[in-house]
């Protein structure tokens, strides 16, 4: 358990599905997972605040990556501890369809563990009161198993691809940002400047705040700004939704050397950049980023 808690303290590193990741090489973000009886390695957070870590069941000693995009792999739940919340693709049985076949719920989540970790990977998942997938995860006990596969390829990050990356995250949308942040900071040859605007409902909802504060304090190329809807009396960060003023003050200006990453709930996405299209492509850029002069090739929506 002590080792597991230390891993949580270090959480925020990227994981590459389908291949090893070296410093400076492209990183794939996203993967598939399915619940038919078990689960992969991840952290469960939020109202339930369950943290889960799973070991791969395969006893073969040959080196393997965490996931396979063409094959469901079983993972076994090893441990659960209290934490906070967060998002790969998992599938859970939800009954039967009209033909009597099992129906599955599909959900995407983003790992936060190091790509070089062997035998496990970690996810942050927010547990919603009526969430079919997250409630299933929250109910798992040590020894339970889930089937997982991936990746679902999204953004390919490579070192120094842009001079300045701005990030706008809401709630569990911090997970893909943490992947990229950690990839940049662990590579001494990556000089990318990173600015993060992170919005939450309250100070208590800020995921991995201690980790983010530690990273920003020890790395001059990372700046983090928090804003919350319901601040406490002693709250010193921003207040309310992310505004034009916050973006102008905290993020890089529109430029060919700028990339703005956005990930959060639908309401926030619509306000900031517009959500993805129905086919999950990037869709039209709208919201305050368009109003401030950013173009579609300067913005990526997770």
Automatic annotation (TrEMBL):
Gene3D superfamilies cross-referenced by the UniProt entry: Nucleotide-binding domain of ferredoxin-NADP reductase (FNR) module, Translation factors
CDD domains listed in its UniProt record: cyt_b5_reduct_like
Any matching Pfam family: FAD_binding_6
Reported cofactor(s): FAD
Positions that bind FAD: 107-109, 124, 126, 132-134, 175
GO CC terms of this entry: mitochondrion
Compartments where found: Mitochondrion
Catalytic activity: 2 Fe(III)-[cytochrome b5] + NADH = 2 Fe(II)-[cytochrome b5] + NAD(+) + H(+)
Main EC class the enzyme belongs to: oxidoreductase
EC number annotated for this UniProt entry: 1.6.2.2
Keywords, sorted A to Z: FAD, Flavoprotein, Mitochondrion, NAD, Oxidoreductase
GO molecular function, one term: cytochrome-b5 reductase activity, acting on NAD(P)H
Primary subcellular site in the record, as a coarse category: mitochondrion
Domain of life: Eukaryota
Domain FAD-binding FR-type: 46-158
Protein family per UniProt: Belongs to the flavoprotein pyridine nucleotide cytochrome reductase family.
The protein's name: NADH-cytochrome b5 reductase
